[in-house]
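Researcher: Go.
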Amino acid sequence: MATVFDTAATVRAREETGLEREQAEAIATACREAAEVARPVTQHGLEAALAQLETKLTWRLVYVAGVVIAAVKLIPNPY
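Model: Structure:
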């Protein structure tokens, strides 16, 4: 989805606050470029990211549990 960004209006608004035209144009350009590369977050995207994080967490938990079990087996039994 394309984002519409009014560079001229942004330049005018920055000039009205006292910025020089060159600075206002640089700000407007940076804002336009940022708007072009921004990706909106969707419900599907959030759910996919959450599923990935859950999988990573599960595997890390399995790894930690294995390390704990191995460490417990290495502790000598005093009896």
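Model: Residues 43-74 form the longest helix (32 residues).
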